[in-house]
Write a structure and sequence with these properties.
Strand order of the largest sheet: 1-2-3-4-5-6-7-8-9-10-11-12
Radius of gyration: 19 Å
CATH architecture: Beta Barrel
Structural class: mainly beta
Order of helices and strands: HEEEEEEEEEEEE
Helix content: 10-25%
Distance between the termini: 47 Å
Number of domains: 1
Strand content: over 45%
Number of strands: 12
Length: 257
Amino acid sequence: MTEPTFITRIRYAILILVTLLAHSSTVWAQQPAAPPPPPPRLEATAQLTFLDTKGNAESQSLGAGGTMTWRPDPWMYSTKLLFAQTEADDQLSARSVAAGFRAARALNPRLSAFGQYDFLRDIFAGVDQRHVTEGGLAYLTFDTPVHRLRVDAGLGYLTERRPTETFDSATFSLAAAYRLVISPNSEFTYDPRFLQPFADAGASKFDHIAALNVALNTILSLKLSHILRYSAEPPVGFDTTDSITAVSLVAKVLRPR
């Protein structure tokens, strides 16, 4: 994928985010100044995706994952795991495993300090193992019953093992976590992240996860998600961009405070 195409995608993503923020400021101004309800102390989800295609072409896609968040004030701990695999004509064509852990401590109602670790294995993208450890500050820009936006800035260290080399560097990152409550039964989330290695200015990375969740009942929901992973300098012979689009069945368990 060429650089202009990627820049176009980034512009679209920024345009969508700016539009949502502009809309949020209008809706926020129209709402009474009532604080949103506190989040549950424990929140856990598990999701499953399966797609089977038969006929002129045969393919199977399988996805599974889960998240867990625990909030013992003033701390918050969260973990995530996502597995995706695709087979076409009995040949494995894609497989990735992504995992992460984050611990954050509130310094005041809006500012918190965090430390986190992210892991990625995607051999079809030339990544045997990617380890990113970082720490930084997170700021809750706004939190209403309809809109919530948190922005992060962090410093860390990246180790990426490729088929023919290993890349190591200190890093700087910028990230955000946005949530839009569309209705009592549906919400949209968008989580972009930019990672800049200090050792090579041209080796930047950009990821995003966009998801639409529609509740079926108090436990089950349908989730439409799009994951994009971009590396400005991928291993030789590999493309710069990988993406996963999936419709999943999600089960959620909450434990109120």
